[in-house]
Amino acid sequence: QLQASGGGLVQAGGSLRLSCAASGRILSSYTVGWFRQAPGKEREFVGAISSNFGTTDYSDSVKGRFTITRDNGKNTVSLQMTGLKAEDTALYYCAARLNNQLSRRPLSYNYWGQGTQVTVSS
After folding, report:
1. DSSP letters spanning 1-64
2. What is the dihedral of CA 106, 108, 113, 118, to 10 degrees?
3. Of 19, 8, 12, 20, which is closest to residue 65 (Cα–Cα)?
4. pLDDT one-digit tens code per residue, 29-44
5. Cross-strand bridge partners of residue 118
6. Which residues of the chain carry a pLDDT beneath 50?
7. Please, how many CA atoms are within 13 Å of residue 101, restricted to the half-sphere of its CB?
8. CB atoms inside a 10 Å sphere around CB 53
């Protein structure tokens, strides 16, 4: 139902744009979050965009470098990543919740995509 795409291998300092697409659901009705998980580490909140006013929230580690936007016409949510660092290397997931409030807790999200790998070489 959710599919994240756009991952790849990039050099440190580079940029990538991830996309989260939904089938069978209208993403504009959902708060969408991005999370990441590196090997041996817990799933980490990256950022989220609310369903009502498009309010965003970012973790301190990505604030100022990552931007989340919606394209309601395409039924997608994008994560634009710039200034990538080696520590950004992880499997990135998008998730959705039927609640207009932002949340950093993975368990508060009802639907998850399969993840897309981002690898940043230093």
Report:
1. -EEEE--EEEETT--EEEEEEESSS-GGGSEEEEEEE-TTS--EEEEEE-SSS--EEE-TTTTT
2. -30
3. 12
4. 999 999 999 999 999 9
5. 8, 90
6. none
7. 4
8. 8
